[in-house]
Design goal:
The complex is a heterodimer. By secondary structure, chain A is mainly alpha-helical. Helices cover about 75% and strands about 0% of the residues of chain A. The longest helix of chain A has about 35 residues, at about 255-285. Chain B is mainly α. Chain B is about 80% helix and about 0% strand. Chain B is flat and about 75 Å long. Classes of the chains: A mainly alpha, B mainly alpha.
Chain lengths: ~290, ~290
């Protein structure tokens, strides 16, 4: 609003004509982004057309609470493990020759695994560990049921896209480390340990935590892999929303889906806000 | 001193090989599991090429697994429409904001990055009423078949790709002086259409390509929205197939991953020595470069 006013105050060019140019964009995002978001946020507080806290209260049910809890734990564990392993991998890749085949191969592979995962990843793990899979022998006693457990198999499967994502997000930060910094440390008598403890570590820390948060939201909002892997029960929040949305038996479940969606949005928004703040801090060292 | 350096380099090379080797092994095992599962007979005992032969037999595929054919065609169509709508929506708007409404830059950026904080499954919840309203109108205008076609999902996919496309195009726009270019063109008598089509767009070639590539990648991998709206795209077809014929679905899954890898790997060679990393990495880095 303020922008429009100041434009008008400066006089000169007529802003109203110029505003027409961005109208299509704003109409589009209003229909397909703003209104849907508002439907979730406002709809969570309405039940069967009238204001009520029923849906929000439904979030307190043990099934929903368990789903949220398990989603958070799964995301946290895979984010931390993925970030640590991915960071080590990123450092290893950063020491490879720029433009060399190793770097191209690993970054392309990670690009695919991080972005295309979904259904295919679930199949990959089922084909490997279930039935006549090559590693089915490892889990013959339980019949491979561990693969479908949120605190066992899902962690492994999620790591399969978290580690690649970490490489993609963190590699630029590691490559921003300048050899001169290490040389300066050495000239001043510092060991490799000093370099990591006092120079590289502090520089990389904001990027590392930022990437970790990104991994958290990535796992937290992941739906495809879990859906393809788990056909019964709703151990995770996205599956809970799915269940509530497609439920035609219980009236008002659609509204509960909105409340659960709002809950997800709040968690992701908090994490993304911290991420934005850290990202600004991180770029202070890495830009130029 | 040189000896020390050499020893350091040797140690680093060993570390690199061990780390990359171990992680690649972890990545390779499930992929090999897919390959071995798809290359065995139905009982899973002996090696057999039956599954791959079926996949190559297109007439048989389209009669025996109609979902796969529909899903594949739908995904290709979705990718094309998503890219077109995204470009038509974003390129003129972002250029226009830069030229005439710099005060709106922050607002447009905020809106474009908003989908990052709205998980796809949350968007589905909000889009459900929108789509039931939209489908009603579309069926009124185009009849029931076209009205409820999968292709309309592209309108929602545009929202999903907004953040990535915005960053790619923003990096491109930063690199050129849009104002001078457009003023030069305007003073030579070009209309706004000519400025967009013949001046701005050619200068944004790389950014447009990068944005389109990301949009295609995201669209081909999309599952959440399509599945919850019960429309069949490639991923949903794979998912449905997994319930009836696991071997074929595993084979298709592996093929899609290999195809994506080949495209990304090839892309990493395009664009010269400066951009020796994947497009995704390049995108992140472009974002961090100062104006």
């Amino acid at each position: 609003m303020a922008d429009k006013e100041s434009g008008r105050a400066r006089g000169g060019r007529r802003p109203s004509g110029a505003l027409l140019g961005v109208l299509p964009f704003f109409v589009y995002v209003t229909i397909f982004l703003i209104v849907p978001t508002l439907i979730v946020v406002i709809g969570a507080f309405f039940s069967q057309g009238s204001f009520s806290m029923v849906n929000i209260k439904a979030l307190g049910e043990s099934a929903v609470k368990t789903a949220l809890w398990q989603s958070v734990i799964l995301s946290l564990v895979t984010a931390v493990l993925g970030a640590v392993i991915g960071a080590v991998l990123a450092y290893a890749v950063s020491t490879a020759r720029e433009g060399g085949i190793v770097k191209r191969f690993v970054t392309s592979l990670c690009g695919v695994l991080a972005q295309f995962g979904g259904v295919a990843l679930a199949f990959a793990f089922m084909a490997t560990f279930i039935g006549s899979g090559i590693l089915a022998g490892l889990s013959s006693e339980s019949g491979g049921l561990w693969l479908y457990a949120w605190n066992k198999g899902l962690i492994l499967v999620y790591l399969y896209f978290q580690i690649p994502l970490m490489l993609i997000v963190f590699l630029p930060a590691v490559e921003g480390l300048r050899p001169q910094w290490r040389e300066a440390t050495e000239t001043l008598g510092g060991s490799t340990f000093t370099y990591w403890r006092k120079v590289a570590g502090p520089i990389l820390l904001p990027s590392f935590i930022g990437a970790l948060l990104l991994l958290f939201t990535n796992a937290f909002s992941a739906y495809a892999t879990a859906k393809a892997l788990i056909s019964q029960g709703t151990p995770l929040l996205p599956l809970g929303i799915d269940g509530a949305l497609s439920s035609e038996v219980v009236l008002g479940q659609q509204d509960v889906a909105k409340a659960m969606a709002l809950e997800m949005m709040v968690v992701v928004a908090v994490v993304m806000t911290i991420y934005t703040i850290l990202d600004k801090r991180a770029s202070r060292w890495l830009v130029k | 001193m040189t000896g020390q350096r050499a020893a350091f380099r040797r140690k680093q090379a060993i570390m690199r090989r061990v780390v990359i080797g171990l992680v690649l092994l972890f990545f390779a095992v499930p992929l090999y599991g897919m390959f071995s599962d798809a290359t065995k007979d139905v009982a899973g005992k002996h090696w057999s090429l039956a599954t791959w032969r079926t996949l190559l037999d297109f007439p048989k595929i389209s009669t025996k697994y109609p979902d796969l054919k529909t899903g594949f065609l739908a995904s290709v169509g979705l990718a094309v429409v998503t890219v077109v709508v995204m470009l038509v929506l974003l390129v003129p708007t972002m250029t226009w904001v830069r030229l005439r409404l710099p005060g709106l830059t922050r607002t447009v950026e905020f809106i474009c990055l908003l989908p990052l904080t709205v998980p796809a499954i949350v968007l589905v919840v909000g889009l459900t009423p929108i789509y039931s309203w939209l489908t009603g109108w579309l069926q009124y205008f185009f009849g029931p078949t076209i009205g409820s076609s999968t292709i309309w999902l592209a309108l929602a996919y545009v929202v999903l790709v907004l953040p990535y496309a915005y960053r790619a195009l923003d990096a491109g726009l930063r690199a050129i002086d849009v104002r001078t270019l457009s003023e030069a063109a305007r003073s030579l008598g070009a209309g706004w259409g000519t400025v967009m089509w013949r001046v701005v767009l050619p200068n944004l070639r790389t950014a447009v390509l990068s944005a389109s590539f990301l949009a295609v990648a995201l669209t081909l991998g999309e599952f959440t929205i399509a599945n919850l709206f019960s429309r069949t795209n490639l991923q949903v077809a794979m998912y449905l197939l997994g319930k009836s014929d696991a071997q074929i679905s595993v084979a298709v899954g592996l093929l899609s991953l290999v195809f994506a890898f080949v495209v990304l790997f090839a892309m990493s060679f395009v664009g010269g020595a400066r951009s020796a990393t994947s497009p995704m990495t390049r995108l992140r880095r472009a974002k961090k470069e100062p104006a």
